[in-house]
C-alpha cells in the first residue's frame, strides 16, 4: 500500500510533462511601502541550472524570496511545475517540490547538525537518504552531534544545502552560496551542484561570484532595478563577456 | 529531637516540602509562559487567569456535571487549552504583526475580563474542591508527615514538566518548535504550517496552566483571584530563570519554591519577598537570567 501511495505520488509529479519547472511573469514584490521587483519575467526548464546575476540591490534575493512567498506582497504570476502559486499559503509552496537555501544560511542554533538536517519536512518522495547525504558531505557526518552554528562557514553552507536535498525538492533556489567562503570550499560546492544537476535537479542560483557560476550554468539572467534586463545562454557567453562585465560593474 | 540550625527536623522538612510543592506550581506555570514566549514572543499575562480557569472549570464540572477529579485532570486542560487556541486564532493572530507589547496588553485585558466576570458570578470568597478519595490521608515518613495529595502534586507536576521537556527537546515536533522560535519564516519556507504551530503552542501553554489549576484546586481555595496573586511570583521566577529555556524554567521554579520554604523556616517575615530579592540580585548580576542567553 505504502509503495502504491509512493508510486502514485511520484507518477502524479511526473505526469506534468511541460518542460517548464518555473515560469515567472510580470512579478512585482513589495516590502511594506517599498516596491522591490518591477515586473520580473523568467522561465526555467526542467533540469536547467540558471543564475540570477546583478549588482547588490538589483532584486536577485528578493526574486527567490518572492517565489517562497517570504516578501510582503506579490502581484503577477509564479507557476511552479504547472501550479500557479501566487494565491497559495506560504507553507504550501515548498510542497510543490521547492527547496530554498537562504543567503544567511538559516542554520538553527538550538538544533544539532543532524536535527538541522532532518528538520525540513519531506515534500516529495525520491529525496536523498541520510546515508547518501553523509556520503556527499562527509564533514557533516563527523560533526553530526555538534550544535548547528558551531560549524565553519563552509560546513554551515553544506548543511544548508544538504537539508533541502533530503526533502525530495526538485527545484532548488540557492542564494549566494559561495559568499565569504574559501576557494577550495567553492570548488567542492561546484562539484556538488554538478552532481545535483546530473540527478536532474532544476537549480536557480543567485550568485555574486561569476567565475563560480559561469562554468555551471545553462543560462544567465542579469537583473537591474528589480527587472531582468538581459538573458545570456552559456553558448553566447564567451562573445558577450565584456558586455556582461559592464552590466555587473566588475 | 533532631534539630537543623535550631529548627526541628519535622518543621524544616515540612516547610521544605511545602516550598517544593509551591515550586512545582511555579515550574509548571513558568514552563507554559516560556513555551508561549518562545514562539509567539508574547508575555502571556492571561496565564494566571488560565490557571484559575483550570481550577474553576474543575470545580464547576464537579458541582454541576459530577466530573470526577481524574477525568478533570485530563479534560480540563483540553477544554481550557482549546479555549486558548480560540483566543490565539481569533485575537492574538490579528495583532501578531504589531509590537509584542500589544499582545501583552491584550492578554492582560483578557485576564481582567475573566477575573471580573467570575467575581461577578461567584464572588471572591472562594470555594473548596475535595481531595479525591484515593489521595486522602497521609504517610508518616519518620521525620515528617506527608499528606498524600501534596506528594501526588509534586510527582504529577514534575512528570508533566519532564514530558514537556522531552517533547520539546527530543521529538520532531519539538524540533519544529525550537526552530520556529528561531526563524519562523524559514520554517514556513520548508513547508511547515507555522500559523498552525503557533496556535497549537499557545493552546499547549494554556493547557499547562489549566493542568496546574486542576492540581491546585484541592489545595487552595478556588477563587477568581487565585491566579493573579500567583502570577506575579511566577513572573519573578521567569525573570530569574531567563525567558526561553525549558529546563531553566523548571529548575528555577523548583529552586525558588525551596528558597521561599526555607525563608519561612528561618525568617518568615521575608518569605513573601525573598523571590523578589533574588530577582533584583539576578537582574543586577546577570540581566538575561540564570539560564537565559545573553542577547
From TrEMBL, chain A:
Residue ranges occupied by any ABC transporter domain in the UniProt entry: 22-250
Molecular function GO labels: ATP binding; ATP hydrolysis activity; branched-chain amino acid transmembrane transporter activity
Domain of life of the native organism: Bacteria
Matches recorded under Gene3D superfamilies: P-loop containing nucleotide triphosphate hydrolases (3.40.50.300)
UniProt keyword annotations, A-Z: Amino-acid transport, ATP-binding, Nucleotide-binding, Transport
A biological-process GO annotation: L-amino acid transport
Pfam short name (any one): ABC_tran
Keyword ATP-binding: yes
PROSITE patterns: ABC_TRANSPORTER_1 (PS00211), ABC_TRANSPORTER_2 (PS50893)
InterPro entries assigned: AAA+_ATPase, ABC_transporter-like_ATP-bd, ABC_transporter-like_CS, BCAA_Transport_ATP-bd_LivF, P-loop_NTPase
Similarity field: Belongs to the ABC transporter superfamily.
Protein name: ABC transporter ATP-binding protein
Native source species: Bisbaumannia pacifica
Lineage, uppermost ranks: Bacteria, Pseudomonadati, Pseudomonadota, Gammaproteobacteria, Oceanospirillales
TrEMBL record, chain B:
Keywords assigned by UniProt, alphabetized: Amino-acid transport, Cell membrane, Membrane, Transmembrane, Transmembrane helix, Transport
Bilayer-spanning residue ranges: 12-37, 71-92, 104-129, 149-168, 189-217, 229-258, 270-289
GO cellular component: plasma membrane
Family matches, as Pfam families: BPD_transp_2 (PF02653)
Topology within the bilayer: Multi-pass membrane protein
UniProt-recorded Gene Ontology molecular function terms: transmembrane transporter activity
Signal peptide: none
Main localisation: membrane
Annotated localization: Cell inner membrane
Swiss-Prot/TrEMBL GO biological process terms: amino acid transport
Family: Belongs to the binding-protein-dependent transport system permease family. LivHM subfamily.
Protein name: Branched-chain amino acid ABC transporter permease
Native source species: Bisbaumannia pacifica
Amino acid at each position: 500500500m505504502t509503495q502504491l501511495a509512493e508510486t502514485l505520488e511520484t507518477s502524479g509529479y511526473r505526469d506534468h510533462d511541460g518542460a517548464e519547472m518555473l515560469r515567472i511573469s510580470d512579478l512585482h514584490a513589495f516590502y511594506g511601502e517599498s516596491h522591490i521587483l518591477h515586473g520580473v519575467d523568467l522561465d526555467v526548464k526542467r533540469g536547467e541550472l540558471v543564475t540570477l546575476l546583478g549588482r547588490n540591490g538589483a532584486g536577485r534575493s528578493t526574486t527567490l524570496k518572492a517565489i517562497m512567498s517570504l516578501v510582503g506582497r506579490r502581484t503577477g504570476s509564479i507557476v511552479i511545475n504547472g501550479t500557479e502559486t501566487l494565491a497559495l499559503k506560504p507553507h504550501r509552496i515548498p510542497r510543490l517540490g521547492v527547496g530554498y537555501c537562504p543567503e544567511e544560511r538559516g542554520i538553527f542554533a538550538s538544533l544539532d547538525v543532524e536535527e538541522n538536517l532532518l528538520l525540513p519536512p519531506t515534500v516529495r518522495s525520491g529525496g536523498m537518504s541520510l546515508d547518501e547525504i553523509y556520503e556527499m558531505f562527509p564533514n557533516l557526518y563527523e560533526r553530526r552531534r555538534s550544535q548547528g552554528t558551531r560549524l565553519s562557514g563552509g560546513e554551515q553552507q553544506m548543511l544548508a544545502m544538504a537539508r533541502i536535498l533530503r526533502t525530495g525538492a526538485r527545484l532548488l533556489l540557492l542564494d549566494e552560496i559561495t559568499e565569504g567562503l574559501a576557494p577550495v570550499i567553492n570548488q567542492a560546492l561546484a562539484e556538488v551542484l554538478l552532481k545535483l544537476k546530473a540527478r536532474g535537479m532544476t537549480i536557480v542560483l543567485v550568485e555574486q561570484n561569476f567565475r563560480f557560476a559561469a562554468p555551471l550554468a545553462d543560462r544567465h539572467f542579469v537583473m537591474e532595478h528589480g527587472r531582468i534586463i538581459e538573458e545570456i545562454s552559456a553558448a553566447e557567453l564567451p562573445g558577450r563577456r565584456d558586455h556582461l562585465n559592464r552590466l555587473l560593474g566588475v | 529531637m533532631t534539630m537543623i540550625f535550631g529548627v526541628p527536623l519535622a518543621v524544616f522538612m515540612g516547610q521544605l516540602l511545602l516550598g517544593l510543592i509551591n515550586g512545582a506550581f511555579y515550574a509548571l506555570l513558568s514552563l507554559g509562559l516560556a513555551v508561549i514566549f518562545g514562539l509567539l514572543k508574547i508575555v502571556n499575562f492571561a496565564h494566571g487567569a488560565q490557571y484559575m480557569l483550570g481550577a474553576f472549570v474543575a470545580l464547576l464540572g464537579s458541582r454541576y456535571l459530577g466530573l470526577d477529579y481524574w477525568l478533570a485532570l485530563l479534560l480540563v486542560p483540553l477544554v481550557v487549552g482549546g479555549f486558548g487556541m480560540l483566543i490565539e486564532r481569533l485575537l492574538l493572530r490579528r495583532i501578531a504583526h504589531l509590537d509584542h507589547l500589544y499582545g501583552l496588553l491584550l492578554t492582560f485585558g483578557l485576564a481582567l475580563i475573566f477575573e471580573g466576570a467570575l467575581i461577578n458570578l461567584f464572588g471572591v470568597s472562594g470555594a473548596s474542591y475535595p481531595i479525591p478519595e484515593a489521595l486522602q490521608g497521609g504517610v508518616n515518613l519518620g521525620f515528617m508527615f506527608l499528606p498524600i495529595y501534596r506528594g501526588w502534586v509534586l510527582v504529577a507536576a514534575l512528570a508533566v514538566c519532564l514530558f514537556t521537556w522531552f517533547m520539546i527537546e527530543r521529538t520532531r515536533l519539538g524540533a519544529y518548535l525550537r526552530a520556529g522560535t528561531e526563524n519562523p519564516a524559514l520554517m514556513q519556507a520548508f513547508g511547515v504550517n507555522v500559523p498552525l504551530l503557533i496556535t497549537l503552542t499557545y493552546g499547549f501553554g494554556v493547557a499547562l496552566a489549566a493542568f496546574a489549576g486542576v492540581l491546585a484546586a484541592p489545595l487552595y481555595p478556588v477563587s477568581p483571584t487565585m491566579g493573579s496573586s500567583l502570577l506575579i511570583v511566577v513572573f519573578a521566577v521567569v525573570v530569574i530563570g531567563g525567558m526561553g529555556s525549558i529546563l531553566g524554567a523548571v529548575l528555577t521554579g523548583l529552586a525558588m519554591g525551596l528558597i521561599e520554604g526555607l525563608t519561612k523556616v528561618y525568617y518568615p517575615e521575608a518569605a513573601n519577598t525573598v523571590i523578589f530579592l533574588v530577582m533584583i540580585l539576578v537582574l543586577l548580576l546577570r540581566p538575561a537570567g540564570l539560564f537565559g542567553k545573553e542577547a
